[in-house]
């Protein structure tokens, strides 16, 4: 009974807080993936560019955000961003330290880390598209935007989905590091619950199970998306 009371939804139970924290983790990962998709697409375009300066900038981005520890990047964003915000605030007469919103910092930091990995996924996917198909599309009179919309982007997404699934799982795990900013996501809430009850093993096991539930569910989503896009292309070839 004590176990059910501890993990229940009553006045002294932590069940509701853990589920809310898991929802925050999920939303944080969604926001980070969206931010990463923007940066990843731009960096992939830079690395595929014929301009050497753009290629160097793209390579620098992926090297930094894949080579520097994720926790250090989160600290740099959190303290650096807050310092910049405090300086800007002082110009307008604000006093004291201005703290950046932890959710925003976490989404930006994890998103830019995700963007470095997504960039490599998109770059590899673009290179996997047969050049002959692009040339054939231009030969029949398709404009460049039409080629992108009807030929390049659908195939890039088909090739990129397995890699994006891996990046998603990585981002879910990276979201646990955002707990150092004080955001009440799953890891932080589990630490608070464990510290309040001195039942560390129980709450860390529950947190692990919730992380596994999220990753298992999203893995199924990505597998269905891969099957759907693969089916569409097989139908196209059959015709």
Automatic annotation (TrEMBL):
Top-level taxonomic group: Bacteria
Protein's cellular compartments: Cell inner membrane; Cell membrane
Keyword Transmembrane: yes
Domain spans labelled ABC transmembrane type-1: 22-222
CDD domains xrefs: TM_PBP2
Matching InterPro entries: AA_ABC_transptr_permease_3TM (IPR010065), ABC_transp_permease_HisMQ (IPR051613), MetI-like (IPR000515), MetI-like_sf (IPR035906)
Keywords noted in UniProt: Cell inner membrane, Cell membrane, Membrane, Transmembrane, Transmembrane helix, Transport
Pfam families in the cross-refs: BPD_transp_1
UniProt topology in membrane: Multi-pass membrane protein
One Gene Ontology term, aspect cellular component: ATP-binding cassette (ABC) transporter complex
Chief localisation class: membrane
SUPFAM superfamilies from the UniProt entry: MetI-like
MF terms (GO), sorted A to Z: transmembrane transporter activity
Transmembrane segments: 20-45, 72-94, 100-117, 201-222
Family of the protein in this entry: Belongs to the binding-protein-dependent transport system permease family. HisMQ subfamily.
Record-linked NCBIfam families: HEQRo_perm_3TM
Name assigned to this protein: Amino acid ABC transporter membrane protein 1 (PAAT family)
Species annotation: Paracandidimonas soli
